[in-house]
Amino acid sequence: MPTDAVVIGVDSSTQSTKAAFTDATTGRLLAVGRAPHRVDGEGGARESDPEVWWRALREAVAGGLKELRATGADASAVSGIAVAGQQHGLVVLDRAGVPLRPALLWNDTRSAPQAAALTGALGGPDAWTARTGSVPVASMTAAKWQWLRENEPATAKAAAAVRLPHDFLTERLAGTAATDPGDASGTCWYSTATGAYDPELLALVGLDAALLPPVAATGGARVGTLTAAAAAELCLPAGTAVAAGTGDNMAAAVGLGLGGQGLLDHPALSLGTSGTVFAATRTRPASPLLAGFAAADGTYLPLACTLNCTLAVDKIAALLGLDRDAAEAGGELVVLPYLDGERTPDLPAAAGLLTGLRHTTTRQQILGAAYEGAVVTVLRALDEVMRACGEDPASPAAAARPLRLVGGGAKGRHWIETVRRLSGRPVLIPDSTELVALGAAALAATAATGEDAVSVATGWGTGDGRELPPLDRDMETWDRVSSVLTRATPALLT
User: Fold this and answer.
1) Which residues, other chains included, contact 188 with Cβ-Cβ below 8 Å and sequence gap of 6+?
2) What is the pairing mode between strands 268-271 and 246-247?
3) What is the pLDDT of residue 289?
4) Angle of helix 453-460 relative to helix 435-449, nearest 10 degrees?
5) Is 414 helix (H, G, I), strand (E, B) or coil?
């Protein structure tokens, strides 16, 4: 690949699209274009019009091109593009590829009853993990499709194609239907055991396999080039290679250099709209407490996701009239900030909980306790991820391994210090801030050249950063929050 070649990694998240124009040789971020999304819905509903994602992609690419030209390069240098999208969302299309309704997003919890019914219909959690690596929860696409069948049967019957968010955008780019094992493994109708769609599970949810996109070998597999129409809309060369792309968590793992010949069993914690923990492993995960995903590169990505992270803590800060960093340790107080239900633990109908309030309690302590409740929830999930990788999370080896901290919360002083205090682990904060987009850019480079995406990202050094030493672990707070969570779970389930 020539040294002046540029690849584009697209991060199409819940809230916005980013297009990262990246030097394909060095990994240097040359330009980033951004555009917002709109999310609608009240109560448990969370929906977006897929056409908004496409418009946002166009706007983000246009903004990136404007920045790129300021560096002396132009669109002719672009050789590849890949999309990393928010996982699990359900997109239903007509025969012309037009959305029949707004997409049901991953954090739409209306499908919780369908998830529970599907779990029982196959024989329980263990039956699901043996096939898919995951148990249906409200987030999973199969539960959303079942909700659609029961609540909008005419729409489900009219569907000519069923896509994930990143599939929808990839098809708009290349004119070819395609997905990858990583994002497909979040549907609960793709089997990580066989590496293919599971006919019995498709029959269980009444879905014709012909409505689904073919599964490429990896997220970096070349599925075509930009169509003439897409190239014209994006002002990019028509011969630009299009990768299969993947889910946002899988792309973040690539950006961190996890998997393949890179780092294995090195956990990452993403503090964003949700709190997510994952690690790359060659062992197929099958824990009912986790999402046992495939990775974008042929390895596996055991993952746990909590719904309530930075947005929940920011909401509590706003209610208290405080800046997000104006927090103190919670003391006796415990806050479980489950403002949108919860996914890990699986409590889709839960509301927030506050206990231990006294006359001496300050606003700053309430806010600090919200941080602690969110971080303990995420770190408890991390322990299960490490067990899925075959490692005892309490072992000295696990405690010595740096925890890679990414996402918007990784920029917040109190988030960083709370994770350090409650984990007792060294924390590595990568210098790169657009890891999902950079992981997608590495997949785009693979589509253009055939190089291994994780090796590309490792060579770029996108996962490198500053390492903070461990703090003495605050077991008093850990035990207090864990005890409240354990005692409160039966009430939160009702």
Assistant:
1) 118, 128, 132, 134, 136, 140, 141, 142, 143, 201
2) unpaired
3) 86
4) 120
5) helix
